[in-house]
Amino acid sequence: MVLSGTQGVRKRPAMYIGSTSSTGFIHLLYEVLDNAVDEAIAGYAKNISVRLMNEDGTDVAEISDDGRGIPIDIIPKVGKPALEVIFTSLHSGAKFENKAYKVSGGLHGVGLTVVNSLSEYTEVTVRKGGKAYRQRFSRGVVASDLEETGAVDAQGNGTTIKFKPDKEIFSASSFDTIELTERLKDLAYLNPGLRIKFIDERNQPAKETEYLSKNGLADFLDYLRGDSQPIIRPIRISKSTDNMKVELIMQYVNTFTEDIISFVNKIKTAQGGTHVTGFRGALTRAVTTYSQRNGKAKKGLTIEGDDTREGLIVVISLLMQNPEFEGQTKEKLGNSAVKSFIENTVYSELSRYLEENPGEASKVTEKVYAAADARESARRARELARKKGIFEGAILPGKLADCTETNPEKCEIFIVEGESAAGSSKEARDRFYQAILPLRGKVLNVEKAAEERIFANAELHTMVTALGTGIKESFNPDGARYRKIILLTDADVDGSHIRTLLLTFLYRYMKPLIERGYIFIGQPPLYKVTKGKEVRYVYSDQQLPGIMDEFEGKCSVQRYKGLGEMNPEQLWETTMDPKKRVLKKITIGDAELANTMFTILMGIDVDQRRRFLEEHASEVKFLDV
What we know:
Elements: H1 5-11, H2 14-17, H3 22-41, E1 47-55, E2 58-65, E3 74-75, E4 80-81, H4 82-88, H5 111-117, E5 119-128, E6 131-138, E7 141-151, E8 158-165, H6 177-190, E9 195-200, E10 207-211, H7 217-225, E11 235-240, E12 244-252, E13 259-264, E14 267-268, H8 274-293, H9 305-309, E15 312-320, H10 336-356, H11 358-387, E16 412-417, H12 418-428, E17 434-439, H13 458-467, E18 484-488, H14 493-509, H15 511-515, E19 519-522, E20 527-531, E21 534-538, H16 544-550, E22 556-559, H17 568-576, E23 583-585, H18 588-602, H19 606-616
Parallel strand pairs: 1-9, 13-15, 16-17, 16-18, 18-19
Antiparallel strand pairs: 1-2, 2-8, 3-4, 5-6, 5-8, 6-7, 9-10, 11-12, 12-15, 13-14, 19-23, 20-21, 20-22
Helix pairs in contact: 1-5, 3-5, 8-10, 12-17, 14-18
């Protein structure tokens, strides 16, 4: 059987948007948004608005721009308006042949077709030449012909696209507000002067937020730096060729981690790619060469790449024609020519900067060699830890309730919070393939801690040993004793904090486990609704009103605040039984967002935390007091 066009997209949606979960759900919005941003990159749009609504329990998005407006002329070859062809035929847009855009972030002629194919309906309004035109589509096909709807301001060109993701396709039904606002902030920083309005009408009263940056990457760097103290002034690098342009800003601060944020055609590349590889190589070479030439090298210490990136914040924005991404979700750049372009550019410009600014260069080399010295100290600590058998060996931690199955593909481990939850989950589990590892209290915040402190933290010792992967030089993801590592914490503020700390540790020190899809978050129910002998478990605040309506309000509602409140039978039925439970697989994007949120909410920058809470206070559904 051969499927073509929109049929193929609906049959295999994950090929185009990654998944049909919440990640794919919001990816549709990003495809429309990316097209609006492309108009801004091309110099035609100055304003973009994103409006969210809700219809029958499913979110609806409307994205508008004041660009040129999608073409509506009849294409002689097919006898249809260009707009109709763009929304119903793969590889039909101007981007596919670089006709209208020198660079673009969309899926090169398939993005809008994919949105149409996977939406219950898509309504497109084009303002062009003093007139407005509208056409509707449904699940990939035309629902109404293109029609003229009236006159508009002759200067008011642009496009508005409204769509409702298809509940027949997606398991999710709402857009992640925090993730979306982070994306809109990124776009404002990357496009100085572009005004982006976000209007959320899903809850009343409606909320409107505006994002606008005057200084672009400099403002972005200030935002990322937060409460960290700068060691040197920001370094800016910019260079253009006929088909590529890179803008880069970097600064060393007084932290122990690297923070490299990269974009290609204004789309975040969460997994980096050849542009990031080129930058890293150039940075290491430039700092090493300068140190050796200027007598800054330290005897007995050899600089490694990680040393040059400790405490470094970098934003890389690359514009280019025909980017080659690994996968349609555009998380990693693959163009080989980019590596040499970035590496040569950064090495040349950074070397010149260091030579021309000896005071700043001395601060950089001091920072780098301090990192190298700390790395060696940490290595010695790890060697000692290995000799003592802390992280390796056949002896598993005593608090681990292991499973009897030994095939990692069939094994899963629940990392649970507290002794009470551990007791219930140990009784509830299937001992054949489910292991339980309880953690006591909050684990170490590795975001701003030196590596040596990890080796003094008992809870992290226990977790690393139980997982069987080792850490740092001895880390081997193939050694993981479980292919499902499930973080199971209470549905309260403390539980969210512990989960974020664990995600931060996993992202910093066991990132391949996330990349391989081994990390999950368990979803215990928030409520137990009872009417007589009938019991229903509710997993979100959005579901509760509907369940109560079914019971006509004649029911009792119990809000679960901790896993220990459920008996083993309830915990198995709701949270641990593979046939009924809900698990969220963690992706690199999820981990990065969690890391950002932790820095904002748990850092010492009070102003940054206050701004975030003011922006998102209306989204709180339950607050512990």
